[in-house]
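new request in #modeling-help
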Amino acid sequence: MTATNLATLGEGCRTVPLAGHVGFDSLPDQLVNKSVSQGFCFNILCVGETGLGKSTLMDTLFNTKFEGEPATHTQPGVQLQSNTYDLQESNVRLKLTIVSTVGFGDQINKEDSYKPIVEFIDAQFEAYLQEELKIRRVLHTYHDSRIHVCLYFIAPTGHSLKSLDLVTMKKLDSKVNIIPIIAKADAISKSELTKFKIKITSELVSNGVQIYQFPTDDESVAEINGTMNAHLPFAVIGSTEELKIGNKMMRARQYPWGTVQVENEAHCDFVKLREMLIRVNMEDLREQTHTRHYELYRRCKLEEMGFKDTDPDSKPFSLQETYEAKRNEFLGELQKKEEEMRQMFVQRVKEKEAELKEAEKELHEKFDRLKKLHQDEKKKLEDKKKSLDDEVNAFKQRKTAAELLQSQGSQAGGSQTLKRDKEKKK
Amino acid sequence: MDPLRRSPSPCLSLRPSSPSTPPCEMLGPVGIEAVLDQLKIKAMKMGFEFNIMVVGQSGLGKSTMVNTLFKSKVWKSDPPGLGVPTPQTLQLHSLTHVIEEKGVKLKLTVTDTPGFGDQINNDNCWDPILGYINEQYEQYLQQEILITRQRHIPDTRVHCCVYFVPPTGHCLRPLDIEFLQRLCRTVNVVPVIARADSLTMEEREAFRRRIQQNLRTHCIDVYPQMCFDEDINDKILNSKLRDRIPFAVVGADQEHVVNGRCVLGRKTKWGIIEVENMAHCEFPLLRDLLIRSHLQDLKDITHNVHYENYRIIRLNESHLLPRGPGWVNLAPASPGQLTTPRTFKVCRGAHDDSDDEF
């Protein structure tokens, strides 16, 4: 990459000798000053099972105590927790984002464990892509949240990689720079460690997992990077406790059988990791993320959306034309959908109207029926009443007739009784 | 108010807008500042690019000035003598060189504009220049929106335009004013008083004040633009510069011996004008501005402000343009369409993105 840059720089133009001091050798300083005033940002993703010491290692790496509590083992699924911190060293401001997987490897069924991680990384790329494609954009002040490096924590079993590790790393290697680390390396002895490292590297190679190789094309760092490449994966220990060893305070872990010093290169590779990650290759990690992983994502995404660079007649298509076409297509679809919905609505209304009319008719019929019934009843009742009245009248007549007879009879009977009494008396 | 009188996009803070995050105290050295060295190494490896355009009437010493600035024979051709006719139309010549100093490689592209303002009728003589500038933006934009992009897009955009004002001693001419108004919206413009050896010190000062007055009246915002000052240090530094703009410069590429020293200068019967002597002319100020202190700033403002403004117009206008292969190539005759003034802001908080996303 570097060789081509110099070549393109000098291609087609002559090199002119300078007759004196012009002064543009201050250019790198100007550039650096600009960058310093803007600040840097760096995003680390820590992937590993719960309890492997991810948070402790971050604390140890950056020599500070980040807030947070240890995660439980009872998470239902893998989640990613992201925290951003502002660090400052002399005049360099660093915005550090640490993303940690919570609950990785705790489930019984781990088939989908890698999915949240991949989705998270893609989401960061997507956010950047959206910002880049905006018409009014502010890329130079945009807070870059793309993951620059993924530290993959391998459990110190001493045997080989777990299949979960292999699967996850295979899914991540085209999206992010992976640096595998053997965590809690104080659980492995030296001889086991060498064998473990060899086994891991051979497994990674045989499965085609591409981990991040420290760049060896620039002379100033080629040597150190080359040797470090041979030490991958780094066996690290993290500790935030300081113990007095000799006459210095050092970060270490104390056991009954001895003390493990974090910054002692004979004990673990922590110093190597810090060198590589921060002091030598931070800029390269960011550049790889931007020029390789992000470009790959962008290319796939744009092709998926249907954009092309050239059409079959090899006339360069423009992104704008395809924008236009897509936009018109989209609008057309929207219109069609709207039409459909409107028609459906009208139909439904008609149906409902018909239903209601039916119901109304029924009601009318019922009403008529009831009315008829009611009238019949009424007529019947009236007939009955009439007959009853007739009977009553008849009865009354008979009663009056009977009474009349009775009264006549009683008169006659009275007189007759008088007569009878008289006769009796006689 | 005259719609042409519009300064380039207002207040833009170039500092990143970050959500408020808790600052953390580090208990010991971590090594974060090593990233500065990494940046430097990367920059030295990649090399730098700088594109400068010199505009002015013929005979004002543009080519000599460029040679003096970069201390090399950038322009091989001799200035047009009596036998060479002045060009009938404005042409643009571009030359690219690679110069190296102490391991820093700079790819320098100088664009000259012979024939500017030389005709009897100078209507729209700025159109080819604006067209050229916009064409560079267009090329960059085309490269940027490709699906498979190059790792490093070659930057041919004009970072700085040095405008040579003839030393009349009065004030800016209408041609100057028209040109500056149009150009300061598209590119960083640095006006200079050319051939200042024909003015005395007092005349220079008066001329300078009058030019500054003219610039203020016509709302021409030349580099360094006040609205891009980020902090108090920048403001102080740039205010000092703004006070001296336009610089009164003299160009020379021949060496003479003065008091035992070898200096660049112009030899006349009444003395030697030393180019690098602050008492004689302000060439060192120009050189420092362009090369030693503000080169990166020029590039940044071109990339973050002028290019973005161009991109916004370009992407917005395409909705109105009919679809077809014709618009991909920007015809140099139609830049007027793209320089119609519009009020747009490239401002951190003012987005109306809802209809910009697709």
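bot summary: Chain A has two domains: 36-305, 321-387.
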